[in-house]
Amino acid sequence: MKKITPILFITFTLNYLFPHCQVPCGIYDDVARIVTIHEDIQTIQKSINMINELSYGETSAKSMNQLVRWVNTKEEHATKIQETVSSYFLAQRIKPKKKGESGRQVYVNQTLLLQQLIVAAMKCKQNVDQEKCQVALDLVVEFSISYF
After folding, report:
1. Helix or strand or coil: residue 99?
2. CA-CA-CA-CA torsion sign (33, 88, 142, 49)
3. Burial class of residue 148 (count of CB atoms within 10 Å of its CB; 0-12, 13-18, 19+)
4. pTM of the predicted model, to two decimals?
5. Which residues contact 129 (CB under 8 A, 6 or more apart)?
6. Terminal CA-to-CA distance of the chain, rounded, Å?
7. What string of pLDDT tens digits covers the 148 residues of the chain?
8. Phi, psi (deg, nearest 5) at residue 103
9. Residue 114 · residue 94 · CB < 8 Å
């Protein structure tokens, strides 16, 4: 039974752990995606703190290894944000509206916010500045207000 429980957990939570597939199955969890983006930003923030801390400490092989791991973690989570935004929200959830169509301005605003979030995630990759994370957090909040 102990071996089955983790398998069942993974099976039933896979939809919540990763951006959902692009098959039109109708299974969406927008709130979970926003929460995941917030967690990714928090991970980037912690990574930046650790990178800065390790950069000013000892330069042993062990500390350099940890530094590289934190840089990789920062990169991975920024990429996850970009993938979630593009593959989930832009590709599946935000429905295009033609000029003059009802809801067009909301569509334009949401699309712009998401594009800015993709760029903010890129800036998090390029820097070790907490301000970049704050920009990303602010954009997620602004998008959430507009979306929900």
Report:
1. coil
2. positive
3. exposed
4. 0.83
5. 48
6. 40
7. 455 544 444 444 444 445 467 777 778 899 999 999 999 999 999 999 999 999 997 889 999 999 999 999 999 999 999 999 999 999 999 999 999 999 999 999 999 999 999 999 999 999 999 999 999 999 999 999 999 9
8. 85, 5
9. yes
